[in-house]
Amino acid sequence: MKVLKFGGSSVGSEEGLANLKNIVEGQHSPCVVVVSALGGVTDLLLNTSLKAAAGDPAYKEGLDRLYSRHHDIIRNVITDRPDDLISEIDIMLSEIASIYHGLSLIRDLSEKTRALIVSYGERLSSKIVNRLIQGSILHDSRNFIKTERKHHRSMLASQLTNDLVTDEFGKNLTGIHIVPGFISTDADSGDVTNLGRGGSDYTASIIAAALDAEVLEIWTDVDGFMTADPRVIPTAYTINSLTYLEAMELSNFGAKVIYPPTIYPVCVKNIPILVKNTFHPEASGSVIRQHIEDDGKPIKGISSISGTSLITVTGLSMVGVIGVNRRIFSALADNGISVFLVSQASSENSTSVGVRDADAVEAVRVLDREFEKEIATGAMNPMYVETGLATVAIVGENMKHTPGVAGKLFGTLGRSGISVIACAQGASETNISFVVDGRSLRKSLNVIHDSFFLSEYKELNLFICGIGTVGGMLIEQIASQKEELMKTHRLKLNVVGIASSRKAIFSRDGLDLHRYRELLETEGIPSSPSILRDEVLGMNIFNSVFVDCTASKEIADLYLPLLEHNISVVAANKVAASNTFDLYSRLKETALRRGVKFLYETNVGAGLPIIGTINDLRSSGDRILKIEAVLSGTLNYIFNAISADTPFSETVRLAKELGYSEPDPRIDLSGGDVIRKLVILTREGGYRVEQDDVDRQLFIPESLLDGSIDEFWRCLPELDKDFEERRKVLESEGKRWRFVARMEMGRMSVGLEAVDSSHPFYDLEGSNNIVMLTTERYRKYPMLIQGYGAGAGVTAAGVFANIISTANN
Asked: What is the band of 315 on the pLDDT scale with cuts at 50, 70, 90?
């Protein structure tokens, strides 16, 4: 025989009841069906009783809702004489109405009356299900589920209940039997009691164990136990199988699939539990049993409890004194306060206990009173309480066979900037629990789920600032490559923020990259550096990467606070890395200390692997002696395009029209961009330098760089004659112009040089860049890196590559 339990969501709607009927009537063996109250009815009964006890006449509105809720369900699902059932239900509802009326007169709601009121929820629903399942037999669980008073609470009278269940159903069960869950009666007084919220699961488990059922099926509104809360982690998935211990640990720490006491009775009898979805009955669900097949994963799932308070008992008098912890837990237990986490220092001078926020004030009062004398003499301190916290547990029996799980856990949290306030782990190594600030709960769950490969994909959450040529191209590349990266690298790129100079838009669930410009205009908020900082930090999202595709100093100023909050930074913007050496080194040190990435490969050579190569050389013990480079694609294009037919001024104009130069070409012609790039490369080579250390040999007059842009364009042709005369001489000598950046042992210079056909720079085409590295190892034959050094496509691709590399952090 089987025992099937259906929760409030399963019996609370027309669809749920229709599915329940199909599931139950499809059974091929005798079964006991345990039902909860209709979804939301228990809360409605309680809230209405509170209003009645307060003398609030609005309780009658709650009573009316009870009538209409049950009447509507009956009319929608019962086709055989529904009015007869409504009459039976109304008798019970009138009893509730009388109790409420009495409460409104005496203005008092005792525990006994409260238990009586909430018992009606299951009694009403079981009558409806009994009529729905034709031929079924209705039982009253008050006759055989018995409790006794212990520690100011009603606890199951196990042996008595077991005997009564066996007597009620007999040993040769046939047919379908309907039982209201949750409710019970006191073994001595006969007063109505209950098994606690979620007690219908417990009722089903008690009956299954007493009758030696072949399986206990829990039918609910989820597909089974999940690796994490899917409302927080969309990539969470159903756990196919887990042990009794794993299920108990996950349930104790917030997984609301099964009421925790449910597991013990069936575990003792080795009866499997199958968790299934009433609304998705074809899903396989989760099976819980003693022994399961090893899936090779160290942890089975992640669970959490929000609204945690941590109470710390401290005092030097605690060291070496026997019985302090006994007093702590006895005092709390005697006052009905449940402790779900304990963390104690090995020195024994402090013990921290985790309780729910609702119990914190009472727990502090109880403990302060228990240790009143010690506190008065200064031997112990008053209780210290921290509220607004959250407790997270990672659970899995395989942890005991996998070294380094705790190290990986806390390393993952640390790299994500999440501080652990307290932690606890038992010797069984099935559960590691820790307490964090409640505001970090979502981030904690996501980084752990991602780190332990419970997620199908590793996720990166991107904030992209700047949607000009490079930023726009980057977004296009991400949109086109998302599916491929998920397929080949198991990497999911989630763009959660996009900002232009005017507007910004953010979405934790990710933005539609095919409509981002439209969304910015219609739904965007005003954008400014301070707004960007506050929004990015406020989202506190895991595996975050801030991508800067601007040339803004104000945006570059955000890097340090972002890195301090464990957000990686990928920059096409050269401002930060070429700023003062102190800022440059501070950014790199902060990224290293916080365990995140600060990457800026495209600062030099667009998508060419120049900075990465220099870093690899130095990391392997090589030393950078000399750098010779053509680093301006714009200037290289200009000096390749200049000819007898195309004067200097025209090549500058062409460079602008083709997108090689900045909108204001003077930025390129001044050599300032090359200077910044040379400084960055020199720093990467291990030298402490500033921009002012560069010897500048410019090829156009300073006066052209200082006026207005219109004046620049008007005066630029005046240089054509001189350039043409010099070009002819150069041509006759078989040479070409290159704007060369040089560094030798920390000494830097930039200037226009003539190179002959034997030089590696001679054949450099179009807007290409070239870098020649002379090192201790590459002294005789320097290393050459050459290719496209400008253009939105290759620059965006270089930024994209940096983004992907952060996934390996």
From this structure: confident
Mapping DSSP onto H, E and C, the string for 78-106 reads CCCCHHHHHHHHHHHHHHHHHHHHHHHHH
Counts of helices then strands in the chain (DSSP H, E): 30, 31
Strand residues in 679-746 grouped as ranges (E):
694-697, 735-744
Q: Which of 122, 138, 128, 237 is nearest to 180 (CA)?
A: 122
Residue 346 or residue 336, greater confidence? 336
Q: Residues near 111 by Cβ (< 8 Å), separated by ≥ 6?
A: none
**What are the start-end ranges of the H helices in 598-632?**
611-619
**Sequence-distant (≥ 6) Cβ neighbours of residue 619 within 8 angstroms:** none
The distance in angstroms from the start CA to the end CA of the chain is: 53
Asked if residue 720 has pLDDT above 90, the reply is: yes
Can you tell me the distance from the alpha carbon of 368 to that of 318, in angstroms, rounded to the nearest whole number? 15
Task: Give, in order, the Cα–Cα distances in Å from 207 to each of 168, 261, 638.
Answer: 10, 13, 87
Q: Which letter does DSSP use for residue 348 in this model?
A: S
**181 near 35, Cβ under 8 Å?**
yes
| Per annotation, catalytic residue among 146, 443, 503, 677 | 677
- pLDDT score of 22 more than 70: yes
Phi and psi, residue 126, nearest 5°: -65, -30
User: Maximum CA pair distance of the chain?
Assistant: 116
Contact criterion met (CB below 8 Å) for 659 and 469: yes
CA distance 254 to 260: 10
Residue 181 CB burial class (10 angstroms; 0-12, 13-18, ≥19): buried
Q: Is 60 a catalytic residue?
A: no
HSE, CB side, 13 Å, CA atoms: give it for residue 128: 34
341-344: strand order across its sheet: 341-344, 350-356, 301-314, 384-395, 431-437, 422-425
Higher pLDDT, 372 or 633: 372
